User: Fold these one by one.
Assistant:
Number 1:
Amino acid sequence: MQQLNRQYIAGRIQPSRGSDTQVVTSALSGRQIAEGVLGDATDAEAAVEAARLALPAWAATSLDERREYLQNLADAFAARRDDMISALIEEFGTTAATAGYIVDQSQYWFVDAQKLLTESVFTQQIGRATVRKVPLGVSVLITPWNGASWFIAMKASVALAAGCTVVIKPSERGMLQAQPVLDAIAEAGLPAGVINVVFGKGDPVGNVLTSHPDVAKVSITGSTATGKTIAHNAVDTMKRVTLELGGKSPTIILDDADLARAVPFAVGAGLFNNGQACIAGTRILVPQSREAEIKAALAEAVGALRVGDPRDPQTVIGPVLDRAQYDRIQHYIQTGIEQGGEILAGGLGHPEGLEEGNYVKPTLIATSNDRTVAQEEIFGPVLAVLTYRDEQEAIAIANDTPYGLHAYIAAGDLDRATRVAQRLQAGRIMINEVVDAPDAPFGGFKQSGLGREFGSFGIEAFLETQAVFS
Ligand code: NAD
């Protein structure tokens, strides 16, 4: 059995000092394909120490030097593209097309960050004050399993551009995907200690990193429960935190929507990445005046989705991450039924002929917003359909959730859709199409998080502001 026991600390690939293990499985077969050996508290301490020692020299690099190193990272990620894609598909089950998108964007984050490096980001004059933006310091970057390379590159690119040194802790449930990322980082050849990678669970590695006195900043993408623990850990030393957390985003289909466009939009927004996406539009709100027609069209579209081997270019929905994720999704579908929901497409169990591996039936459940399937993040291909009487009620239902990451609106009249958008509590709202916008701010209202990432908002999150009067 292949052992995944490497860490990257102080410029060296070295074996993990910990003894906790992690079973690494294939999403396609459900079988174990590797054993992960996780780091321990000493690995976490060593990584922070390496980042601390590297900080003064890295913070003093010129913008040209930083651009050059960011390009080295882009090139190293490009060289590992195929390895990253195949590991992502094997472990996570996302389709080949989505894996290609995730891995290509991972590389572009390092290119995009170079464009942010202008003098005006770091210095401006306000009256008599010279306002400087200085690197926050050692930054811990904690990432989830739904696309390791993407989250690591998105956070590391701007942290490094800001002049911070970093310790990355990828998810222990994404160890296979993170292996070629670790290789690319080592091959990029940044000065020792500027970028470190430690594998481990929240306890002990995550807790050591997020409460360490030498760490100035923690940026995490993960669940809301984990975000709360990290915020607690960080507060004693007043670390800056960026929390990108869970979501239960609404897709409002307004009564003037053209269904030929609205239905693929709603289904695509809900089931991107096999539904394992924080931004998924998992509550579809339909107007009572067109309820039967829209429900039928949604059911037909979800029922027709091709589920299967994610390497097959015809596949739209692949398997989910692991057995635990499969069981979690089944539990939610069962709960939806027990609470009176009506299954419009999909349902319990594996799709026919796909009994091996973690395949789930894409499922549509008609329910009401107070039910568990409409309130809790499932993180799989399960969509709740909710009916509203009028626009006021649509907005009220859309906002009736502890989350506020994303929202989608399908509409005929764009002005009306824009007015509705302004009343939604969500960090990003997309009207009639899913837009790829890596330079516009990304982040959540309410319990979907704290702070914003991407583009200039991303780099700002790793800078501290100082005003000098002369
Ligand atoms: P998770 O919260 O279980 O884990 C995320 C990361 O946090 C992992 O690396 C994990 O090891 C680490 N962690 C756990 N406890 C910790 C602790 N005490 N200290 C430090 N680190 C700790 O989330 P997941 O299951 O990996 O990912 C799915 C979740 O992530 C979903 O809720 C999803 O919505 C969310 N997510 C959010 C975004 C976003 O941008 N808002 C994007 C993708 C995923």
Note: The two ends are 65 Å apart (CA to CA).
Number 2:
Amino acid sequence: MKLILAIINNDDTAKASAELNHAGFFVTKLSTTGGFLMVGNTTLLIGTDDNGVDAVKEILHATCARRKHVSSTVNSLGRGLGNNGLPDEVEVGGATVFVLNVEDMTKL
Ligand code: 2BA
């Protein structure tokens, strides 16, 4: 069994979750924040049999778009009003995916 952690853009969360559920996968959504841009993103937890990993990746690839993130003072509130050396434009996404081995999963 595997646990997939997928960090995706907030705007892709609804479609990715819906497609994953539709394909029979269970999904938990965490609200997270990227440490570089300090902007909210979403981390999905997906527990699956080993043979489901490729299907999950395909769904994430199809539903999570790469996009440019343009810095603004609004996005920099956590760092004060300045841009603090961040690039004006950064390419983000579609999905950053980690696949972990799971020793055991039980629903009690
Ligand atoms: P952030 O950390 O806010 O990073 C947003 C984007 O900024 C990244 O997009 C990348 O293009 C750039 N970036 C991040 N760290 C950088 C650095 N040290 N130097 C130069 N550019 C940097 P993505 O790579 O698509 O990552 C999107 C989000 O996925 C990240 O948001 C972070 O929350 C997560 N992430 C990506 N790789 C990760 C990793 N190896 N470990 C943990 N989280 C990761």
Note: Residues 7, 34-37, 39, 41, 90-93, 96 surround 2BA (CB under 6 Å).
